[in-house]
Design brief:
This is Lysine--tRNA ligase. The protein has 17 helices and 21 strands. It is α+β, with helices and mostly antiparallel strands. Helix 12 packs parallel to helix 13 and helix 14 runs antiparallel to helix 15.
Amino acid sequence: MALLETVHADRVAKIARLKEAGMEAYPARTNRTQTVEEFLENHSTLEKNSEQVVLAGRVMSIREHGGSLFVDIFDGTKGQCYVQRDKLGESSYDLFIATIDTGDIIECAGLAFNTKRGVPSLDATGWRMLAKSLRPLPDEWFGIKDEDERFRKRYLDILLTKDLAGRIKRRSTFWNTIRQFLLERDFVEVETPVFETTTGGADARPFVTHHNALDMDVYLRISAGELWQKRLMVAGLPKVFEIGRIFRNEGMSHEHAQDYTQMEFYWAYADYLMGMELVEDLYKHVALETFGTLKFTIGAFEIDLGAPWERHDYVQTIQKYTNIDITTTDLETIEAKLQELEVKFSTEGWNKSRAIDTLWKYCRRQIKGPGFLVGIPKFLSPLAKSDPKHPEITERFQPIIAGSELGNGYSELNDPIDQAERFAEQSKLREAGDEEAQMYDHDFVEALEYGMPPTCGFGVSERLFSFLEGISIREGQIFPLMRPR
């Protein structure tokens, strides 16, 4: 700490030195004429025409060589400036030596040239400070190794870690590709409330906050407006989607975060079979546009999204891997099997539905994919339409890739009487202690009573991006939530 305080004081003193020389330490404007990337792309032409160039960027390293300096600057692309006493002049060079540190953001004016080693560089004839750094950067080659420190100082992690800025760009491409894919198919992008008086659209524990103006508690949404978007189906909009932040007050893991981005679409006059076709096309398109490939290594799995997408029946898959028929078994048998499989589970809010879901999560880890989970029971799908031939099974589908569900969709339940009964069953589960069971939304049932057309709905979160990127969902977030020190 004492060393950092000394460095800080030394750099503050350098600001005073700059002011004495008539140079601002934090000017509002730069004279930059082009980016480093543009400079490197046009270097030959610039050198040939002896065109004056002004570059700007952060000083990443300074290397002395024969009384001159090689200075690497970074503005998103790294470039090299050559600083000589005879080109800058005595006083300007001395000021540079006396005040410039790694981490400073500067601009250099000069001419393009190639070093003896053939490195495209800028031969500096002038310089100016743009922002004086008061703290030293971690070593560029080693970066920040402690994970907690990396997440707290993500800005340094991005600056120093190779391709982390590239990941942020890929994340942007990922969501914008999804957006463009849907817009080109005549979906309309909408925004729905983040604050809700009744949460809906998922089995999850919500965050609660207080709305001062209305003097009431509200929930932060747990889905990207599922019940609101389905109201738009009632309103006559045939295709809508939303990309937005959702919040779930649940545990943290490699695959789970508490606030994250999700996309949900709703498509009137379509069913889950049409939805599966669209989603398969969407995933392939997004993978190619974002990563340039359909083949990925995810954990122990080698995945090819271009391979045939198989169908995995929920009941049959559990029976295959555990020898349990969930349609006839009881809670005690499931618990015994979970203990045999050494699967940990919490008894808080515990019931048969939660036990079956826990058993399924063990089974799904055995499935390579790509494929779709189908045949999901009604008691696990309170918003999905039942299969007419098998009323206890729903027309629900979930993409399965590398042992995980990476999305959720179904033929939406549009029978208001059936929906009211399912909400009532969910309410009983909540009263029995299951905080993730869905709330009874009377207003939504009323909207359904006006008539909602057959509809397919689907949602996918940023978990898909993190899987394809080969990282945890926390690592995939730009600024993950941290506990204060």
